[in-house]
């Protein structure tokens, strides 16, 4: 019964205006950070450390992340290769864009998690900026390490998928534990991170499966690539927010109004 109650309350939270506002804010900033983040990680692998196998693994992961549309996949990968090979100014521009966009990603996510855990105060703007920058570099290093490990798997799709899922779970755990402005139930949150990582992978597969039937290319014309990434980020954000709700609320029933001394409940009419 408690599990059923949690499922219902999580579903109702995802239907609330609050969750949609946060999800769209997160998705918009994911769209801004997607390309610069990949350019930085690929530049680190290809230009700085000279690990072409790791770079090709990242390109393969990008192709797996995108729908099977030749125009979309070719456009993204071709421009990624051009930006990485140009080095210099492209890398500096990507670094500046990544710092800006990563702050946008973590700000609405922190506020959402603070509200779910019942923390009344958010971090100051500059404290959030500093933490966002730190989380961005940590996620970048994890992504690079994942690419190196996957490259040593000799291109095996099974190895690549396994380390990708592990990366997703690790990033979810870090965000859930570190980002809220207060102490969270750590072990419960880590368990939820496992399920969220798996849900994100399954959600991505489902999105790629139904994408050809959504008609983005017909409806949005040349903007269909941006819409594809935006909607994908929105769905991923909703999964992350659902996980945050479950981690914060657990299997506990919602609080009930306490009666007054005269036996009447709080909020009841006189």
Task: Write structural notes for this entry.
This protein has helices spanning 2-14, 17-48, 52-65, 70-86, 89-117, 125-151, 157-178, 186-210, 216-220, 224-249. The longest helix has 32 residues, at 17-48. It has one domain. Mean pLDDT is 78; it is low at 253-270. It is mainly α and 270 residues long. The chain has ten helices and no strands. The radius of gyration is 21 Å and the shape is globular.
Percentage of residues assigned to helices: over 70%
According to DSSP, the number of beta strands is 0
Morphology: globular
**SS element count, helices:** 10
Characterize the largest beta sheet: strand count, sense, and whether it forms a barrel: none
> In whole angstroms, how far apart are the ends?
33 Å
- How many distinct folded domains? 1
Low-pLDDT windows of residues:
253-270
User: What is the mean pLDDT?
Assistant: 78
User: β content, as a range?
Assistant: under 5%
Structural class: mainly alpha
Radius of gyration in whole Å, from Cα? 21 Å
Order of helices and strands: HHHHHHHHHH
């Amino acid at each position: 019964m408690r599990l059923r109650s949690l499922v219902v309350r999580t579903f109702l939270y995802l239907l609330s205006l609050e969750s949609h506002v946060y999800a769209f804010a997160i998705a918009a900033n994911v769209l801004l950070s997607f390309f610069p983040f990949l350019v930085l990680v690929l530049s680190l692998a290809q230009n700085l450390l000279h690990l072409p196998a790791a770079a090709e693994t990242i390109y393969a992961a990008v192709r797996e992340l995108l729908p099977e549309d030749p125009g979309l996949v070719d456009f993204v990968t071709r421009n990624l290769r051009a930006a990485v090979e140009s080095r210099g100014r492209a890398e500096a521009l990507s670094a500046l864009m990544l710092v800006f966009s990563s702050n946008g990603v973590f700000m609405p996510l922190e506020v959402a998690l603070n509200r779910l855990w019942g923390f009344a105060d958010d971090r100051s703007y500059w404290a959030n900026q500093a933490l966002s920058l730190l989380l961005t570099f940590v996620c970048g290093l994890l992504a690079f390490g994942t690419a190196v490990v996957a490259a040593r798997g000799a291109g095996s799709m099974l190895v690549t998928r396994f380390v990708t899922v592990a990366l997703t779970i690790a990033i979810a755990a870090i965000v859930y534990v570190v980002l809220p402005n207060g102490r969270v139930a750590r072990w419960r949150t880590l368990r939820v991170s496992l399920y969220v990582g798996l849900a994100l992978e399954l959600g991505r597969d489902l999105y790629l499966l139904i994408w050809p039937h959504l008609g983005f290319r017909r409806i949005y014309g040349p903007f269909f690539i941006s819409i594809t990434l935006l909607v994908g980020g929105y769905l991923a954000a909703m999964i992350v927010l659902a996980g945050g709700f479950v981690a914060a609320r657990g299997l506990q029933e919602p609080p009930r109004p306490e009666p007054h001394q005269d036996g009447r409940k709080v909020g009841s009419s006189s």
